[in-house]
Design brief:
The protein is an all-alpha fold. It is built from three helices and no strands.
Length: 90
Amino acid sequence: MATSVKLDDDLKDRIQRLADIRHRSAHWVMREAIRSYIEREEAREDFKQEALASWTAFHETGRHLNNQEIRTWLNTWGTDKETENPQCHE
């Protein structure tokens, strides 16, 4: 799929400078920038959807963990006394 993007001269120059520094083509720099942006935004959207699903589940079931329960559990991570994740409750 061929796509064109109009860039102002300043941005073109910045891309070319970076490409020269990295010993890559300007095309490679632009593709990497777009790939990185898409991956970051997809991860952000996945996180948002997971949070919304959790919120919905909480409203439907009332099951949850409170802040202290999570803090206590997380404080065991990386220690000899690491515990299993706590179970949700109403």
